[in-house]
Predict the 3D structure of the following.
Amino acid sequence: MDAMQKRSSTIQDVARRAGVGVGTVSRVLNDHPNVTQATREQVLRVIADLGYRPKSAAVTLRTRQTREIGLITDEIATTPFAFDLIRGAQDEAWAHQSILVLINTSGNLDLLNAALDQMYDRQVRGVLYAAMFHQPVNLPERFRELPAVLVDCYSEDRSLPSVVPNEIQGGQDAVATLLQHGHRRIGFINYTTDQPAVVGRLEGYRRALAAAGVAYDPTLVRQADIAPEAVYRTTIQLMQQPDRPTALFCFNDRTAMWAYDALRDLALRVPEEVAVIGFDNQELLAANLRPPLTTMQLPHYEMGRWAVHHLIAGNPQPSPTAPQVQLDCPLVWRASV
Amino acid sequence: MDAMQKRSSTIQDVARRAGVGVGTVSRVLNDHPNVTQATREQVLRVIADLGYRPKSAAVTLRTRQTREIGLITDEIATTPFAFDLIRGAQDEAWAHQSILVLINTSGNLDLLNAALDQMYDRQVRGVLYAAMFHQPVNLPERFRELPAVLVDCYSEDRSLPSVVPNEIQGGQDAVATLLQHGHRRIGFINYTTDQPAVVGRLEGYRRALAAAGVAYDPTLVRQADIAPEAVYRTTIQLMQQPDRPTALFCFNDRTAMWAYDALRDLALRVPEEVAVIGFDNQELLAANLRPPLTTMQLPHYEMGRWAVHHLIAGNPQPSPTAPQVQLDCPLVWRASV
DNA sequence: TTGTATATTGGAATCGATTCCAAATAAAGT
DNA sequence: ACTTTATTTGGAATCGATTCCAATATACAA
């Protein structure tokens, strides 16, 4: 508690104790040239003695720039991906001596505006805006007043830089993997909306088949809500049709989980009788299913890194040509194929 | 981009345009008394015109205090709980006009120390330290140099305030629920370590039985690693013994998921023939199993709130009598009981 | 040795807020 | 009308860093 109240030392204290001017101390602090080795060491010694650390408020006030990056999340809360994204962003920020400041807006527009105010007041280097799943977003105009990068989403007009998963590549690689294992009739349980993941993965499915010279059979492609019974029923139907598929590409890991249930009830063994591949790599599910699920990983960690990197190195400005990056979804091998 | 470079206005600008002194502006900004209604309105008008906002760096420098709270997480990454905790902390921080600054240390001690340096430099109001599951932790001495609150963990010597789930209550309520539904032979698949969750939930199990006047039968209590096959086999054994249990209390939701598998293979229907209750309420699992799993929720959101609240309102100081709070785990009703 | 170019150094000014004190105004009391 | 007392106000000092400029020290050349 003593430690807690003790007024911490300032650059003045250091200068006085070291018998030099504040300018000199500042110079050693910031690795400027034109300081003799002797004085540098002397100053460093005093700094260590005093346990002196520059206060970031003072630095910011004077230099007009912080070492903070804002991360605004929209209800990302509910998805377990969140943390990979945060970790990626943090690791990259850390590499630039920066730190993350977090605000979750819970999809509330007032909160979003308040969040922007905060970021503005704090003079952050820039902000990331992360959505809970790959989607177009409509953001307030004020987003253009700060350097910003969108993660797992993109602005309708493409005027802000964004980084999203490469859904097509993901779908294509997933299906290509099944093809490589000899499967020719590959069922696809897709989701019903028209979000990028849905259309992208379907496109990937088609491309993979085309590349392997396998004809596209519409009866193998189904759409189901992401709900236990819907997927269960869809799977049963899909597998009971004549010339049933020998492999299943599922829109996501949850879908795969319910498909597993259906397959089990049909007494079809995974992977012996039916191979299954998922999408998302939600560890909690994929790694814990029986058998563990082979799946495509969403590049959340990498998206977080890329976004921060671009923010710091790319000096992003809103413009019609803002980069729109897609990052690949790698395959995660488990036991279901 | 114009907006992006424009030097934002200062309190001086406001004072000049409003024809008052900076002191007056500061007074209206901070709701101090002794400002006539007329000048107050005049100043407010200019502030709105200019879109003026005080820069937090300047405020911090002068007042020596920020509106930031540090959140240091230890590898919490991998658990989907993380975000509830963060949300709780953020909501409470927000209510005090404060914001969260996040650092994940990935269990790395150097990073932890660096994180503390950062927090110190930034003069945060205090820090939360959150572990990835309820456990004792051994933290560097430096933690005592800042107000700190531990979340989902506690220091061995109990000298830092902490907030953790009430494992005993959780276990007790879980089992009491089963008892209320008429079950008398209740199996318990526990985990093998001696972490608080394991001993606490077992204690809760015993207390619930005792309260209901049901004898404790050691053959109903098993320990299994949290691994698919281990739980699967344990469940099979447990259910095949003479006078099999009619209900199952599982250490956590993952355990329950694998127990489901075993029950299905034994052709025992949930909940008709066997009731199942889990623990943790990992939405992704519990809500998506078939049938959806009734479970005890870990109070991550509330722990986050409590921790921030205590940090701000409780003025925590390290002391032998630091509060050690346990928060209840509420029951989440689904369909497995 | 002396003059010139170069490398170090000290310290005042600055960033943008808050706070305190003295001065100016208004209100109250006789 | 004239103190006395209470409210409002302006503005200088301050927080703790960086930066720039002038001053000093040192190196180099003739």
